[in-house]
Structures are given as C-alpha cells and as structure tokens.
Design goal:
Length: 330
C-alpha cells in the first residue's frame, strides 16, 4: 500500500472534462486520466474529478476499437479545464457546434487543453492563436501549413497560461503530472511517477523525438548541425556546398560523415527529409499536390511524383485516395 501524501492547506476539487473524438488515442487518454486517479489515491482526498464527454454523448470508439460511454458536451456542467482528446484522421473530425462550445468555455475562463492530435481541433476553433502549443511530430507539418500563425514547438508538452497541449502517447502522462505538481507540489508528482514505475518526470523542455545529436553522440555535432540545417530548408533548397560551408567542413568531409553514420550520401538524406515532409502534408491537409511539391522543394509536380513513387512505392495521388478511403471505411 502506497504511503499517503499529506496535502496541507485548503483546496477545491478540480473538475476536468475529457472530450473524446472518434478514433481518439486510448493510450494518451488513459495516460492522462490515470494521473488524476493516482493523485486522489495517494492523498486520500478528492483532489480531482472528471467527466468523459462526447459531442452528442453516447458511445465513442477509440482508434483501438474500444468503446467509451460519454456525456454530451451540453451536459458537461462546471469545468476547470477541458481536454480535447484526438487520434487518427483528425483533419476530418472538425465540428462547428464543438468549436462554438469550446469558445464558450474559453470565454468563461475554462482552461483549454489538447491531447495528441486534439491540438488540431483546438487550433481549428481559433483558441491557440498567440499561445505556444505542440502536437504529435507526425502532424506538425500539416498543422504548420494549415495554421501558419501558430507558435508550434517540438516539445513533449506545452503549458502556456490556460492552454495545455501535449504530443500524445506517454507525453500525456508528463503533462498531467506537471499540472498536478503546479497545484499540489512536486512531492505528490514524484510519488505518482514512482507508482507508475516512471524513472524520470519529463518536463516542458524535453523534445518528442530523440535528437540526432544524441543518436550520434556528442562527438558528431557538425553532422547534427548539417541535418538541422537541411530540416530548416525543406522548401528553399540549399546546395551541398552551402551546407558544408555552414557547418565548417569541406564537401568531401561532410559526405564521409553521412556515409559513416547515416549510411547514405547527403543528397539522399536531404531527399528523404523532403519526401517525409511532403507525405505529412499529403495525408494531413487538403493542399493541392502541386503546392505540396513546391512546399517540399520540388520545382515540378511530375518530378515530385516520380521521386515520391520511387521512395514510397505509390504515387502521391493514389496514396491520398487510399488514405481517404481508409478513413471513410473506419
């Protein structure tokens, strides 16, 4: 039995609403909500209560096909914060009535949060302008293209005043533990992490993906800088000579580093980055293919389609069509 954590002073029960969107990520949802359950268990006090919401109420099915019974957003009652829980095919899940309801909550000073791709829907409601936010790394390119005014970070989670966003997966746990710590102290947050066998509580400045610098080791900072320079120039292409000059190497030295540590020539690696970026835009936005080609550094659509087919084994137009059919079927 875990030792009870003492909470001193007065407190009021914080009431959260979790608005689950069809095909939401069950893992991220559970990772968020279980931190609140554990906070109550460890303190022996009702620090938190929560309600599971759906747009219309009734059964909402997660991406793993598990069903959840929900209350309608119109019956949510008083909330201190609402978290929009997203998952797959999020760009097809916009809803005008939901947007109106979220704006009404924000006007009442209810904090607005998002878990996994829920960030997309909060942005669609116009509630992230001027705030730092994050989303799962697979959805970043699409979010940037559709909402260029947003301040998007690659971090695991962002807490910016009364806007809470996280990348999903286990990052939902990190964000919720952080919010618990802000209200009730790090002693409680640390014990929650210990109960879930978490070795380290990750903070706001932890990045989503293992940085290339860590994958390569500290001995290869110039290679990591070269890749970062490529990633920052996907639309306006830079030459290999420019990249080498930027990191202070000769072209030949740079080619050797790529071959030794990344097992390909720099131009091939650069092409891969551009095509991965293009694929995110293709599947997450409604941008015309010609615009996706230009946004990924290709001067013509035929050349883009040829490179895309060679890399992914399917033409971009066919992949978009298949993705839409799969989303409709599910």
């Amino acid at each position: 039995m875990a030792e009870t954590v003492q909470i001193t002073g007065t407190y009021h029960t914080t009431r959260y609403g979790f608005l689950v969107i069809p095909e939401y990520s069950m893992m991220a949802f559970a990772a968020a909500i279980d931190q609140l359950r554990m906070a109550n268990r460890l303190t022996g006090k009702p620090l938190y209560e929560w309600v599971i919401l759906g747009d219309e109420g009734g059964t909402v099915t997660a991406s793993n096909h598990l069903a959840m019974e929900t209350a309608a957003i119109s019956d949510a009652g008083r909330l201190d914060a609402v978290f929009v829980c997203g998952g797959v095919h999020i760009e097809q899940k916009t809803n005008r009535n939901r947007n109106t309801w979220l704006r009404e909550q924000a006007a009442r000073k209810v904090a607005i949060g998002a878990i996994c791709t829920g960030t997309y829907l909060v942005a669609h409601a116009g509630l992230l302008d001027g705030y730092r936010c994050t989303i799962h790394w697979e959805n970043m390119a699409g979010l940037r293209e559709e909402f260029p005014q947003l301040i998007i970070s690659p971090d695991l989670f962002e807490v910016d005043n009364d806007r809470y966003t996280c990348a999903g997966g286990s990052a939902a746990m990190d964000m919720m533990v952080y919010l618990v710590a802000q209200k009730h102290g790090w002693d409680l947050a640390t014990q929650i992490a210990e109960e879930f066998l978490v070795e380290r509580i990750r903070g706001q400045n932890d990045r989503q993906r293992l940085p290339l610098r860590l994958q390569l080791g500290a001995s290869q900072p110039k290679l990591a800088d070269a890749v970062a320079f490529m990633e920052a120039n996907l639309e306006e292409l830079i030459s290999l000579d420019e990249i080498a000059f930027h990191v202070g190497l000769s072209r030949r030295q740079l080619e050797r580093l790529f071959q030794k540590y990344l097992h390909c020539v720099p131009t091939r690696y650069y092409m891969r980055l551009r095509l991965m970026h293009a694929r995110q835009l293709l599947l997450q936005t409604s941008m015309p293919i010609v615009d996706i080609a230009y946004a990924s550094g290709f001067v013509s659509t035929p050349h883009f389609s040829k490179c895309y087919r060679e890399f992914f084994g399917i033409p971009p137009r066919e992949e978009r069509r298949a993705h839409k059919q799969m989303a409709t079927a599910s």
